[in-house]
Each structure stands twice: as structure tokens, then as C-alpha cells.
Amino acid sequence: MPTSPSDPGPRGGAPYDLAVIGAGPAGLAAAVTAADLGLRCALVDAGPRAGGQFYRHPAPELGAAHPERLHHGWETFARLAARLDGHPRITHLPDRQVWTAGRRADGWRLHLTGHHQGPDAPPGEVLDAAAVLLATGAYERQLPFPGWTLPGVVTAGGAQAMLKSGLVLPGRRVVVAGSGPLLLAAASSLVTAGAAVPAVVEATDYLGYARGLKTLAANPAKLVEGAQHGAALLRHGVRLRRRSAVVEAHGTDRVTAVTVARLDRDWRPVPGTERRIACDAVAVGHGLVPQIELATELGADTRATPDGTVALAVDAEQRTSLPGLYAAGETCGVGGADLALAEGVLAAHAVAGRPAPAGARRRRDRRRAFAELMAAAHRPGTGWTGWLTPETDVCRCEEVTAARITEAVEELGARDARTVKLLTRAGMGWCQGRMCGPAVACLAGGPHPSHPPRPDSRPLACPVPLARLADLGEAEL
Amino acid sequence: MARTPADLVGAEPAPAHHIEFDGRPVPALPGQTIAAALWAEGITAWRTTRVGGRPRGAFCGIGVCFDCLATVNGRPNQRTCLLPARPGDTVTTQEGHGRADLAV
Ligand code: FES
């Protein structure tokens, strides 16, 4: 039988007033704020240490005297971590994922599982809470290119994550490529940590930002952050190639070089502009995708973001369309740590039934405007499919090539990602389409303004052993 | 400038232990995941795919892509980017679906 990590509280009903899922900037800020306002909180997190991907940091055994050198805004994290540490009203539950959630008369029941399931895994846990805040962040969007499955080609966020937590680099000469502000951040941490970065290859020309001068002016901190990354890159002689893309990675057992080409306005490679750059690693990403499957499975309303992803729709107080379910941070649309912190604070006040602090609300509104501008500037152009060859693997897990997806669309009449998936198995492997989903949706003819992208539907938010499902009677949900 | 990530953050790690990768010893620092220890040795592939038999290693680094699967202490399909390296762990390159022991 599943067990509960806590006994029912003295007030009866759900043992927790608030369960926060995710201990990144949004979840951390929300948990400590709500607890300070008197709520009993559970903070469930997939990582071994609080901080999420943004504040990911080495294990204590690695003895890092200056973890802040790999971070922006480390003081903020240090303050939050100190507030979390030993807080009498917060139960921190690390190394756990919520794999499904269900409504109860008095709130929500969350089902938790550990990462490292096996014969000796602990039994499943359940947790009841009156309100739930989804602060699960985002994962990276990938657009495939020939050779992207070669070892040494890694996600830009993954390169940063492994560097921040394990103090390791994917290679010595790392080309950073794709689109979005994360590229500059990743490139600047890689060079300061000792890697050579022969080029940062960005598909947009940044002109999109020029359309939002007022929004830019209202967000000086974001500009300073960008300038700091830019300065680090200049100092190390890193070249930024705008409106270009890695159109092929070369190598047999691992990457040894990439071909970079100029792109036209629609991201179509311009023939004759190819250049080869030697490298032993590539860090690549095309923006971030909000991780919202728990909420969409429960039926929460979503919205399309300007860069073509799906985010949860929330009101001014961070409420989703489902009573008692709140969201903060990247789940509401990708916008960075400052925005996530502000949204976490706002959500905590809403759950506690307190008026929103004006400062947090102002910061949220400004940063949200900046996030939308940024998303629009980095929205993938439709011409990226021009760098695929028929043999390019689109789905990494099931090794489904571009040719097979084109065949499903053009010859078998598939009109959406779901049909392509059924016909080709793209997206049916281990990662459940998290890596290939956006690309498959594009190849299947979307996203199109008249058909807003459909949120992915996954009945389980993370892999669970069958025994867990067997434990779970209908009544449990 | 031969700076390393450890230099950058002024790391003074606890002494390294060893894990075994395909029969050879690989040093690991306490607190590193198996994937991190392999990267530190310049190893980027520890799995071959089911269909094409192609080499793979860590890709997303955060437990989402499942490209970093390996057989650890005889147990297949372990996400090495999440799994802390423990002294004496044996990691073997995982071939295909990783269930070589299950004759079907
Ligand atoms: S590298 Fe993606 S799951 Fe481990």
C-alpha cells in the first residue's frame, strides 16, 4: 500500500495546505513565502538539492568554495535556501517525482515515485494537500539536424546542468548553437570554466527585440545580464554568428566538426554559405518548453506562447482554470528566474488568501512582457526543415527518420503529431516525445496560427514501475 | 589558460573513488553522477541503440531524454545523468534494449 510522508495535520482534512511541485526559483520562493504566511507546505522536487535547473549546484562533497561563479543571482538563492533550511512549516521531499495527481473532496492527492526504481525501491508515496502549485519548470526544445545523435552533441541546458552539478565539460572545443537567450548563458559558463567555444551560432538576428524598445527599457536587469554574458564572450574571443545554424554534425563515434550555414528570414539554409568548424562537442537548444503534463492531464486551460509552445493559462493571481491548482514560473510561459521568483511570491499570497504585494506584481508584469518579446524574437522559422536529410533521425529514442515522417504526412495522410506517432512510433519511446515532439508537430504541418499547438497528452508524468500502477486502485485517484 | 570547472569554483573535493566502466577503472569524485564521472574521463558514449546499433551517451543531462541509459551493477536502463556514482559501481555499455539476460 502507498504510504503518506506525513500524518494528517491537527486541523484535520488534508495534511498540507499547499504542495509545491518543483524546487526551482518559482517553487522555492512560493514555499518559503507561503510558509512564512502560516501555511503548512510540502516541497516535492526531482533533484537531490533545492534550486532546480537554474540554481543547480555541486553536491557538498565536491567542496565548491565559489559555486556563485557559475551562476547569476546566487545571493537570491542563498537567501531562499537559508529560509527553507529547517523551516518548521515546510517538509522538503527531494529525489521524488509526482507521476499522477487526482482531485479529492478537500483538495488534491499526489502520487510520488523515486528516481531510481528497482527491486529495492521504497513503496509509492501519496501526499494530500488543499492546494497545489505546479512549478515544474521547462525542458529544452530541440530541432533535429543531421548528426545530432552523435555522442558529444548535447543540449545547451544539459551542458550547463552537468557543469553546474558535476563540474565537467562535454568536450574541449564546444560549438554552442540554436536559438534563445540560454545560448549566451551556456556559452559564457562554458568559456569561463575552461572550454574553447569556437562559435555561438544563433538562428535569429536579434532584430525582433528592436520592436519592443519600451519593454527592453523597463527591464534593465535583463539587459545587464545579457551584456555580462556578451562581455564574457568578447573577453574570450568567442564569435557570435547570427542568423546561422549548425546544419550538420560530422563524426562516426563522436562529433569531430560541424557545418554552419547562413539562414534566410524563414530559417532556410542559404546554399553556398556553409563553413566547417572543428569541435569535439556541440551544445544545442532552441528555447524551452514548459513542463505542464500533470496540469494538462487534469484538464487545465492552456495558451499558445509567441514562440509556439504551450503554457498554462493563469489569472493575475497565478490560478489555473482548475480550483486549487496554481502555477508559477516557466509552466506559465518561459521567462527566466526573476519572473519565476515574482510569480512564486504572488501564488503563495493567493493561496494564503492575502493581497498580492505590489512590488512582486509590478516585477511579474514587466518580466512577463519581456518574456513574450523574447519568445517572439526567437520563434523558429518554418524553413528549419530545409536542413534535414531523409536519413536524419528525428525521434532519437525510436530512431525514426525524417523520411518516414514525411511519408506518414505526404503519403499516408497524417495531419497531426498524434497520427504521425501512431504510424511511425515517433515519440513513443522512453522520453515520450519530449525530445522530438516539437519537431514532429512542425513536420506534421503545425503549429499554424489557425491551429494553436495542442498540449502533449501523457497519462503518466514520468516513468513508473508497473507495480505502482497495480497498487493504485480506482479509489486512490 | 588551462582553467577547469573545479578551479573556477575553487573546489576542494573529497578524495576520488573508482567505478568500473566496461572493465576499466574510472575515477569519480564523491557527489558526481556516473555520467559526470564518464565525461570527466572524456567518455561520451555508453550505450548502443536498438535499431541502428549507434553509440549514445548523455544528451539532456537532466533526466528527460533517456539517452544516457547504461547497465549499472547488472541493472539495465539506469539514467546515469541522475545516478550518483558509488565506490565500486560497475557500469557496462548497454546494448539495444538492455535486456540481454532475458532470452526471448
Ligand atoms: S542525459 Fe537525458 S536522461 Fe540522462
From TrEMBL, chain A:
Alphabetized, the UniProt keywords read:
Oxidoreductase
Q: Does the keyword Oxidoreductase apply?
A: yes
Locate the FAD/NAD(P)-binding domain: which residues?
16-336
- Give GO MF terms, alphabetically: oxidoreductase activity
Family matches, as InterPro entries: BFD-like_2Fe2S-bd_dom, BFD-like_2Fe2S-bd_dom_sf, FAD/NAD-bd_sf, FAD/NAD-binding_dom, Metab_Enz_Cyan_OpOx_G3PDH, Opine_Oxase_asu/HCN_bsu
BFD-like [2Fe-2S]-binding domain: which residues? 394-441
Record bears the keyword Oxidoreductase: yes
Q: Give the protein name, as stated in the record.
A: NAD(P)/FAD-dependent oxidoreductase
TrEMBL record, chain B:
On whether Oxidoreductase is a keyword of this UniProt record, the answer is yes
Record flagged with keyword Isomerase: no
SUPFAM superfamilies named in the record: 2Fe-2S ferredoxin-like (SSF54292)
Instruction: Read off the InterPro entries from this record.
Output: 2Fe-2S-bd_N (IPR042204), 2Fe-2S_ferredoxin-like_sf (IPR036010)
Q: What is this protein called?
A: (2Fe-2S)-binding protein
Q: What is the lineage of its organism?
A: Bacteria, Bacillati, Actinomycetota, Actinomycetes, Kitasatosporales
Pfam families, per this entry? Fer2_4
Q: Which domain of life is it from?
A: Bacteria
* Keyword annotations of the record: Oxidoreductase
Please list the GO terms describing molecular function: iron-sulfur cluster binding; oxidoreductase activity
